Amino acid sequence: MSIRQTLLAAATASILAMAPASAQTLRYANQGDLKSLDPYTLNETTTHAHLGHAYEGLIARDKDLKIVPALAESWETPEPTRWRFHLRKGVKFHNGDPFTADDVVFSAERVRAKGSNLPTRIPSDAKVVKVDDYTVDFILTSPNPILHSQWDTWYIMDKKWAEANNSIAPTPVAATSPSFASLNANGTGPFIIESHQPGVKTVFKPNPNWWREPEHNLKEIVFTPIGSAATRVAALLSGEVDVIEPVPIQDITRVDSSPNAQVLKGPELRTIFLGMDTLRDELLYSNIKGKNPFKDVRVREAFYKAIDVELIKTRVMRGLSTPSALMIAPQLFALSKDFTRPKADPDAAKKLLAEAGYPDGFEVTLDCPNDRYVNDAPICQAVVSMLARIGVKVDLLAQPKAQYFAKVLKAGGYQTSFFLLGWTPGTLDSHNVLYDVIGCRDDPKSSRGENNLSGYCNKEIDALTDKILQEADTTKRDQLIKRAYQILDKDFGYIPLHQQALAWGVSKKVKLTQRADNQVLLYWATKQD
């Protein structure tokens, strides 16, 4: 079973309840909510993890994060621009509908349709062709050796079910009214969603007809969003829930010293960063009218040099973060050691602002989630204070992730001037970051830049990104990636902050085994009576 599709998977850690003890209910609480059951609404790790109980992709990731067969039994590339996938026979959706090639073709069209937040899962110009009921070809315009690398979170939907329930189109993240697919699920995965009350509770029951042999002893998983950190910790310590995520940094010692719970900690591959609107001629949320300060590289550099990531590490993250010079975790790029982040320099930042024509600074709104990342709101509060030292007044708008994503991704309009975001490349590769987050979003026919909230655009980086995708020689490929990051650094296109640490609170009734793979900690467990 893929670790991303068992219980509470994140990009770098998972807790898996396993046999042979008697069947159990596992109760889990997260700081954020599961807003939609539509698997194409939000490209967010926690959402993918929850929906991975019910839905599956053509491929999966094993406990070592290696690609393994799932709904596709095998695949080959008969030619550089054609991938052929042979589908697993005998698989049924939760409602009994058979899984066939028609569902793959439908899902390929739907994930790239207007309203989807995952269009980069499949190149926009790729043709998806049904060869027979259990064979599908993906025909590309250019070679793509990592085509399927993030398909563990491209979940396959039931075409017949979607058509019957008016759910052919994906549900946009900013939708004001729920669709049938956002409130109901019908996948092929190991768990059936028995009930879903957004903001209240979601109940998962084992799928008795799953095509694989279950590796758990669970009779149900009950997920309850608990936004309050204090309430979440109290629920764990009292035994009301079995697992919480995250454990607030200030409560780690308290949980570890309790008689009935412990904290699992490990590095994560997600990079937390700040972005600035560099596209609009006038910022949406600023007192500067008629122009956009962030179009001036000196202003972007000033913001970069005003942010003290070491202070954030010690004061806000209490040592549980790794300051980053890049928009990707060092574990995912071999040449990351060639990059060094300059130290914070408020005096130099003030001088740069003055040179750019803002000697007294200016006002801008910072959009920030308050229930998505570890200490996200406190990080943003620290940024507000640091920018105040150089004369920039920041109005902090911190919201729950449902409201935050609905705002910043509003109808593809990217309604933000300055924002905090986290990103884990689904492919575990730099191309994903360079294409999806940093790539220009100026071509409405392309999925490039789908999650580029800032509108940052550098055509030289785009050209390098295209070469990176097709380059098979690792040494040459790494040099292309390095060049792209060097250009981004010189341009101060984004402000990377750090890779945070994961902190899971787990009841001692859950038996644990721990191991490390490439500095990524994985956990699996048996729920005891």
UniProtKB/TrEMBL annotation:
User: Nucleus: is it a keyword of this entry?
Assistant: no
Choose one Gene Ontology CC annotation of this protein and give it: ATP-binding cassette (ABC) transporter complex
**CDD domains reported for this sequence:** PBP2_NikA_DppA_OppA_like_2 (cd08498)
List keywords of the entry alphabetically: Signal, Transport
Which InterPro entries does the annotation name? Peptide/Ni-bd, SBP_5, SBP_5_dom
Query: Signal sequence span per UniProt?
Result: 1-23
> What SUPFAM superfamilies does the entry give?
Periplasmic binding protein-like II (SSF53850)
Q: Which GO terms describe its molecular function?
A: peptide transmembrane transporter activity
Tell me one Pfam family matched here: SBP_bac_5
Q: PANTHER family from the entry? A: OLIGOPEPTIDE-BINDING PROTEIN APPA, PERIPLASMIC BINDING COMPONENT OF ABC TRANSPORTER
What protein does this entry describe?
ABC transporter substrate-binding protein
